[in-house]
Amino acid sequence: xxxxxxxxxxxxxxxxxxxxxxxxxxxIMEEIILINNVQEQLRNIQKLIVQELRYTQIKNxxxxxxxxxxxxxxxxxxxxxxxxxxxxxxxELLTAKFGNIETEISLADLQTKIDCWxxxxxxxxxxxxxxxxxxxxxxxxxxxxxxxxxxxKLPTVDTSLxxxxxxxxxxxxxxxxxxxxxxQEELLEMQQRLNYIVDTIQNSQNLLTILLxxxxxxxxxxxxxxxxxxxxxxxxxxxDKLQELTDIxxxxxxxxxxxxxxxxxxxxxxxxxxxxxxxxxxxxSQKVAIxxxxxxxxxxxxxxxxxxxxxxxxxxVVLGFxxxxxxxxxxxxxxxxxxxxxEESAFVADDGGAIANFKSAQNLGMEAAALxxxxxxxxxxxxxxxxxxxxxxxxxxxxxxxxxISFRAKKQLASYRVNHNAINxxxxxxxxxxxxxxxxxxxxxxxxxxxxxxxxxxxxxKDKLEQAINLLEAIPEGTSxxxxxxxxxxxxxxxxxxxxxxxxx
Length: 505
Prior knowledge:
This protein is mainly alpha-helical. It contains 16 helices and six strands. The strands form two sheets. The protein has a four-stranded antiparallel β-sheet, sandwiched between helices. Strand 5 and strand 6 (241-244) form a beta hairpin. Helix 7 packs parallel to helix 10 (207-218). It is flat. The chain starts with a helix and ends with a helix.
């Protein structure tokens, strides 16, 4: 019995070792060996339990196993495995793996728990083997390790966009524009990762495929498979933070909103910087033009004036003999000059129109970006901003190829389309939030009508309130109606509880 008690006291350490770190192939291979060793020790404890039950013939005798150590904190410290500060982080995991470890447990129940832990070890071994046997899967996992985790990446990009634009220095402005361009590329990469993660986790029934989505979320931080059951789903830890799959999806929703806001912010900064750069270039061009006009016309010395007069006189004589030839050539020359002048004027007109459209598009972009600063905003504001971005895009699309501004217009067009898409997402989010609020209010009015007019319809009233509560809970933070939704939610939940209590009584 003494040996059994000693081994039982090692259970927290053993069971906590039953996890799989998703890393390189060598690391996974090492963990397969570790998991196998833990399972062997668990099987040894099982054998001792069977012997104890057989010898004592008391199958339901309660023994101090996990409860022998009074609290979770003491349990961890006595095992020499975790310090008390980690207990709060791991509390949910301990409860999922052990149940309530502050109560006594019978040997039969402990035997059942050990069976579950051994089965979990088998699942981890199977997953590890499947990963190692799939070279394509390993390649995808390795590619995800090249990126920072999304929780780490977002603050980095946010910090890089905290820029005070230098409006008086073109060289510094260009450096700042380049920095903004890098941040926008990173934001685009984050949007693509978020879409991939959400789609992979939500739409896949294959655990290995789901793990690809999880690895994309955590990147080079890596993650550990801690536990899987019906109550807690798949429990994952990374950098001492425990999460379930639902937590990761919720984090992705929050990150999508933050990335959209950063896209809007970056485009606004870029607009201001590029406009400032154009203003500086225009000032430099004006100075060059003024300096050119003020250049002094060269003067000829007196001795050269006489020679120049003789040359002009000789030329007049020559012109006299060649006047007939010149007269014959004048109509053709005039026609050529007229054609050239018309083509040049048309080109200048096209170029001027393109520049005007480009500047108008920039102004619209700056107005749209200014509209949505410091959200939340009502639906009409998001709609106005979306319309302005669309107008700006239409102007840029109208700029023809071959103009001096066409290359910059193409570059600007790609940026504006990304921003327009981000605004449209916020617009749809706001529309859905407003629709949910209105529907919830309608459901509440119907519930009130049922209660006041027919006591027999209390169940229908309760159902209506439940639907209203679900609609309000679906309204995300950051929308213009989120505060109002939270206030209404408290009232509806109170009314729902009151109806439930009344029906029970």
